Amino acid sequence: MKNDIFSFSRFGRYFAGELASICSGKGLSILAFGLMPVYIFILDLLFSSFGDGYEYMYAISRNTFFVFSFWIFAIWIPSACYGNITDKRAGAVYTLIPVSSLEKTLSMIISTLIVIPLAFCIIWTGTDFLITMAVGSPVKDTVLVYAFSESFTPLDLDFSDMLVSAANAILLFLLGAVFFRKHKIAKTILVWMGIGIVLVLLGMTVLETMTDNWQSAASLENVDISTLNIVWSCTIAAILGIAIFLRIKTIQY
């Protein structure tokens, strides 16, 4: 058979069908996450009823809510959409789908890493924009405008660093969703913490070694930390992507 590994037409049909399935099964939950500004607005109204007059929540506070809700969404969405493939019945059907493991992996990664988070962000920022306009606040107070005019997080982090870190987190929880059969999110968090502890200890050891070597320590001043972080994060993303592919390819029931 030709194109056993990858076919654009076959991948396109499969990807479209998978997105339709996700919209049918999880679309309402994704919408509920995206409508978070409505819940914030209602709570804001309730709390403001104890004072004199009403003023919509500041953009910096809503921006913080957006960041936290996005991270919760990013942790939840992989297991919500693909956690069932480790189930014997649903997983057996998944393995019989006539597409390659590479196509399944790419579809999975594109959906959870780009399409679904983008849909969430559009719904969230769109809803926030409509509410901000409805209460008479200026456009500059919308989360969408504020995010690109001020620091995106309370910590002064580079946007590209945060974006790559979020992508890695989604890939990590996607790997946990297809690897663990039960308690996927909890086990992934525990593994993440364990790896983090090991990396911190290794980093401290390397730093201590370099401190003893003043020439090596001085060379660190010429290193672009932001570029180094992006290279490191992209390497981790590639490793996670390969691990997801191997899991999909070798999964057994």
Automatic annotation (TrEMBL):
It comes from Candidatus Cryptobacteroides excrementipullorum. It comes from the Bacteria. Keywords: Membrane, Transmembrane, Transmembrane helix. This is Uncharacterized protein. The chain crosses the membrane at residues 28-50, 65-85, 106-126, 162-180, 189-207, 227-248.
